[in-house]
């Protein structure tokens, strides 16, 4: 494939054990390297999933703390880029953290950090009640990073339900590949996961890489899984055979395909500018 770049997306079941999760991530990195991938995306909460309320706050660290330094070393030693989202980054006070998507290059340097904007305050139908804002600070900045794998747009999990951030990433920040590390609940994943991911790919004409938490983390929490890699036409090109298993999905992405899709259906030329919609609203 011309201009193809091999990428991988991980699926795992994190627990409340930082060392055990690092061991799993290290094994997944090795699998990705052996598969020829130069870029691996790990899911939300890759380093830790608490079993009790407040546990995540107790282990939160700054981006220059020992946990992130271990992952920077892992990237450097393995010569692979890593997408790590979201990491429990220490917040501005002891009662809050940031759910932060960190991008590390193959020299072990942090190249970007996006703090999740949309917090999961939801009463899941037939499931649990979540209140992420009780302990998480919402981010305020859209983040896109130029890399050898194209311009990457960084998001986290619940952001997926808000197309505006992906429109911003595509049309105002030049994103070519959208990253959606997640820990979708079983109920919402069954209903909406693949549909939303494919919609984001189609409407932005971007690749989408969605690394997912999968299975039961503890007695109270279960994630849907189904790690996916999707092309700009909305076709699934990478997927694990078992949506509950730990492993990696691998795919070759072709940046020239993005150009081809966008040239044949030039939605960037056809879309209405923000000023147009403001004038429509004011005339109602």
3D architecture notes:
This protein has 8 helices and 17 strands. The chain is α/β, with parallel strands linked by helices and 284 residues long. The strands form 3 sheets. Strands 1, 2, 3, 4, 5, 8, 13, 14 and 17 form a 9-stranded mixed β-sheet that branches. The radius of gyration is 18 Å and the shape is globular. The N and C termini lie far apart (50 Å). The model has no long low-confidence stretch (mean pLDDT 95).
What's this entry about, in short?
By secondary structure, the chain is of the alpha/beta class. It has helices at 18-34, 55-59, 66-78, 163-171, 186-204, 255-264, 267-270, 274-282; strands spanning 4-12, 39-42, 81-90, 97-104, 110-115, 121-123, 129-131, 136-137, 143-147, 150-154, 177-179, 207-210, 212-216, 222-224, 228-230, 236-239, 247-254.
